[in-house]
Structure formats: C-alpha cells, structure tokens
Design goal:
The chain has helices spanning 46-62, 70-86, 88-99, 103-123, 160-165, 168-174, 188-199, 214-223, 236-246, 271-283, 303-315, 335-350, 383-386, 402-410, 425-434, and strands at residues 8-10, 12-14, 17-19, 26-30, 37-42, 131-132, 139-147, 150-154, 177-181, 207-209, 229-233, 252-256, 262-265, 295-299, 354-357, 361-362, 369-370, 373-376, 393-399, 417-421, 439-442, 461-462, 475-483. By secondary structure, it is of the alpha/beta class. The strands form 6 sheets. A 7-stranded mixed β-sheet has the order 15-18-19-14-13-20-21, with helices on both faces. Strand 13, helix 10 (271-283) and strand 14 form a beta-alpha-beta unit.
Length: 491
C-alpha cells in the first residue's frame, strides 16, 4: 500500500455531484502516522449547508425517495454493501492515512460497515405500524410509520465509515433525505460513500455531504429550520451543545456520546479469556474508542496475577506504521489528543498510580505514536479512572466485592458500556441488572452485531442505533382513526 504522492482532493457532495465550497478553500489533512498531506477536503460554510439542505428538502418533498417501496430501497442499500467490499482497499487506505489506525483493522471495519448496510437493507422491508381493533364496532385505528424528513448527521474521527454506516442506511431505509458532516480530520470515506450511493441508484439530493469544521458546518445543521432531526456521534461536551442548539425548532436529537467503561473481573474468571479481552478492549484503535475498557475493576484475590499476565501480553502489541501489516497500534489522531492522553498518564501517577507498562511516546522518525500503557492501583474516583482518556491507557482499580465494583462502575457521568468476567451466573446476572450502561458484556468485550441496539445511559447519549428499531428512530408515528357507519351526533 502506497501513500499518494499528492493529496487526494475532495469537494462537497451536493445534489448528486462533487461541488466546490463557497469558501473556495480546502483543509489539508496530514497523515498522523507519516507527517505528509494525504487529503485536501473542501472547507464548507453555512451557505453550503443551506444549499445541501435545500437539495435534501426538495427531494424529500418530491417523494422521489420517500415514496419508494421498501423493496426498492432495500435493493439499493444491499448494492452499497457489495460496492463497499469492491472498493475496500481504497476505503481502508484512506481511513488509515487520515486516522492513523492499522490498515488491517481499517480493512475489517469496511467489512463490518458492509454488514450494517445489509442489515439496514433487510429492515427496509420490515417497517410496520400497529392496528387497534378494540375501540368498539364503529372505530378502527392504525399507526403509520413515516420518514421524519430531512435529517442532519454529524460524525467523529475515530471510526469514520463505520459510524456513518450506523446512521446513513437507517435514515435512508426510513425514506428520509439527509445531510452528513463528517469530522474535518477524516472526511474522505464519507464522500466516497456518497459516490457509491449514486452508483447504486440513490436519486440525487437524497444524501448530501458538507465537509468542514464543527463551527460553521455542524452548527448550521443544528440551527437549520428545515432539518427535523440531528443524529450525532461524538463527545459529551459537543453533544450537550448540539442538544441545546437543536432545541431552536425542537428537532429530535439522537446522541451517541463518550464512555468510561468498566470491565469487572471476579476471582473465579477465566484469566486466559480476560487478558485477551482486556487487551483488545483497552488498545483496539489505540484506545480511541468510545467502548474502550479503559478501567478494569479486578478482584484483589487475583489482581497481582492478572496484572502480570496482562502486562506481558500487552507488551507483545506492535506499535508502528499502520501500513505495516504487523501494526496493532497505529498513530494518535492529532497533537491535542496526544497531549490530553499524556496529561492523564501524568495525573494518574500524581494520584498514586504505578506504571506497569508504557507511559510515554514511542520515538519514531515520522508520526505520533504512544506506548500501550497500563496503570495499576489507580484510585477509583481519580480523573484517570473516571474521565474519558480516549487513548491507549488502561487504569486498573482493585476491588474486594462485586457490590463495590458495581458501585464504582456506576459512579461516573457516563453509561455507555460495562462488563463482567465471572463463571458464576448469579454474579453475572446481578451485574447485568445493576450496571447502568447501554451494553453489558458477560465474559466478552467489544462484541457487537447490527442486530443488537447500541447507545448510552446517562451522559453517554440519547436514543439507540442499530438493532431492530434502528429505522424507527428516523420516523414519526402517525395515528389514523377510521370512523365507520353512521356518525353519532355530538349530543
Ligand atoms: P467531537 O464531539 O469533538 O466532534 C464530533 C463531530 O461534531 C465532529 O464532526 C465535529 O466537527 C462536530 N462538531 C464540533 N463542534 C460542533 C458544533 N458546535 N455543532 C455541531 N457539530 C460540531 O468528537 P470527536 O470527533 O473528537 O470524537 C471523539 C468523541 O466521540 C469521544 O468523546 C468519543 O467517546 C465519542 N464517540 C462516541 C461514540 C458512541 O457511539 N457513543 C462512538 C465514537 C466516538 P469537527 O471536529 O470536524 O470540527
């Protein structure tokens, strides 16, 4: 795989074609792994958002997409899944160059995304309302599921194609038109996705991509009076700001936000399974993962043994150029993030934690790499153990009982995911019920399927993606009531 000699240039995607921004300027993305420009992305403006929303609204009102049958939509979504696989190498390379993630991982994320498109394709044909036939002889009622209208989709940099694929196909399955704004750091694959949708038969204007910064582009989407819903994935701080802005015309808001996910390890757990899951959970995507197992609450009876084994196992992870096929941890997305991560490591040490592994930068000629880091004896309520680090840093907190572990796990503002490793089904069930999180894993971690809903409790979000109701999120429910026979007078 080669790095392109000149950065690949992308314009906005509006009304089914690449079109320059009114700003006439481009944002150059440097590969965080190679320190060279890899893409030049149009810097969109509020005026571009207006153009894109107008195109989406026009197509929505024309019914060119909203009035198609589920079968027609399904065929297009399924074709997209196949085309994603055909263009897998190109997509994976762009994701790696813009984000720094290992190429082999980016490759499997394209496959995962294609699977989601197939799931959405199936749901197109299973969007049902209800009927009510118990209202008396002269009344019958039904509900209709209708597309909510034009939706605004805003995505982060850590899984660009994957997260776009958790939104776009379900919005389209519902019959909505959409405008999507990817992160300014990782926009390329979302633009290619739009091109693929056209190739597969999506009418022009149904999906538009406006690239650019959160302010003005994301902000303009949230303020726009013709947008009925915002689906956002990103940080809790920005999520709160978006919810406040979107209240301007009472848009529906679906938020997938940050997490500080606790993996509980009891003293009867299968240690082979735990160290493998903990390593994956903490270091997958360099820990830049909303579902990272960034804190492990381990029973004191096995803690020493667990830490020793996990440290030895994590040492084997190769931190290097993400284009190298041995790479398991690639580059960190940008300097701000790198400094934030190093700050949390320093704060952890100041609070009394000890470093078992890593703790600093990996010195390389090019790029920005951090060591896989394990901190032990982290105080349960310290910043490192309760705030989202979003980097390859694992905090180990030692616990005495399951009740204590559950209490610590629930003592953060977040509630995205959590999990327990134990061979005692009573403990597993107790934790599954008591953990305040949208996903609870038992004897596994980071396992997801498009069939299963995903979302957060508390400040990890609002609403759910994926699962059997993913399309319903993008619909309104209308009640239709039929009065039968001769009308009974008012009095
Ligand atoms: P941010 O919240 O910084 O940004 C997310 C998106 O919002 C970007 O496209 C950004 O634009 C845009 N944005 C920024 N400001 C505004 C605004 N005022 N109005 C509208 N849009 C705006 O998140 P990151 O990109 O840094 O991603 C990391 C975060 O995402 C982490 O907290 C992580 O936990 C969370 N996340 C959650 C997931 C989940 O499913 N729960 C999954 C993946 C990540 P730009 O940055 O281009 O300026």
């Amino acid at each position: 795989m080669k790095i392109p000699e000149t950065p690949k240039r992308f314009d906005l995607w509006i009304d089914g074609a690449f079109t320059p921004s009114t700003s006439a300027s481009y944002m150059t993305r440097q590969s965080p792994a190679h320190d060279c420009p890899v893409t030049a992305i149009a810097a969109g403006t509020a005026a571009d958002v207006d153009r894109a929303v107008a195109s989406a609204l026009q197509t929505f009102e024309s019914g060119v997409w909203a009035n198609t049958s589920g079968a027609e939509r399904s065929a297009i979504l399924y074709a997209v899944a196949e085309r994603l696989i055909e263009r897998k190498q190109e997509l994976a390379l762009l994701e790696t160059l813009e984000s720094g993630k290992p190429l082999a991982q980016a490759d499997s994320e394209v496959e995962w995304a294609a699977g989601i498109w197939k799931h959405a394709a199936a749901l197109c044909r299973h969007l049902y309302g209800q009927s009510c036939n118990t209202l008396g002889a002269s009344t019958v009622s039904m509900t209709l599921r209708e597309p909510i209208g034009v939706v605004g989709l805003i995505t982060p940099w850590n899984f660009p194609l994957l997260i776009a694929s958790q939104k776009v196909p379900y919005a389209l399955a519902a019959g909505c038109s959409a405008v999507i704004k990817p992160s300014e750091l990782t926009s390329a694959t979302t633009l290619i996705l739009a091109e693929i949708l056209k190739e597969c038969g999506l009418p022009d204007g149904v999906l538009n991509v406006v690239t650019g910064y959160g302010d003005p582009v994301g902000q303009a989407l949230c303020e726009h009076k013709d947008i009925e819903m915002i689906s956002f994935t990103g940080s809790t701080t920005v999520g709160k700001a978006i919810a406040a802005t979107a209240a301007c015309n009472l848009k529906k808001v679906c938020l997938e936000l940050g997490g500080k996910n606790a993996m509980i390890v009891m003293d009867d757990a299968d240690l082979d399974a735990v160290v493998d899951a903990a390593r994956l959970g903490a270091f997958f995507n360099m820990g830049e993962c909303c579902n990272a197992s960034s804190r492990i609450l381990v029973h004191e009876g096995i803690a020493d043994q667990f830490v020793e084994r996990l440290t030895a196992f994590a040492k084997e992870l190769s931190v290097c150029d993400p284009l190298d096929e041995t790479s398991k941890l690639g580059a960190i997305i940008n300097e701000t993030q790198e400094q934030k991560i190093l700050g949390y490591i320093a704060a952890g040490q100041k609070d009394g934690a000890t470093i078992c592994l890593g703790g600093g930068k990996v010195e390389t000629e090019k790029g920005r790499y951090l060591e896989a880091t394990i901190l032990d004896h982290v105080p349960a309520d310290s910043a490192t153990a309760t705030e989202e680090v979003f980097g390859p840093v694992l905090s180990i907190v030692r616990i005495k009982t399951l009740d204590e572990a559950i209490s610590i796990a629930n003592r953060t503002a977040y509630g995205l995911s959590a999990g327990i490793f134990t061979n005692d089904y009573n403990q597993a069930m107790k934790a599954s019920r008591a953990l305040r999180a949208g996903t609870v894993w038992v004897n596994t971690w980071l396992e997801g399927h498009p069939e299963l809903s995903f979302g957060g409790y508390k400040q990890s979000g609002l609403g759910r993606e994926l699962g059997s109701k993913a399309v319903e999120e993008y619909t309104e429910e209308k009640t239709v009531l039929f009065s039968l026979g001769k009308r009974q007078p008012w009095w």
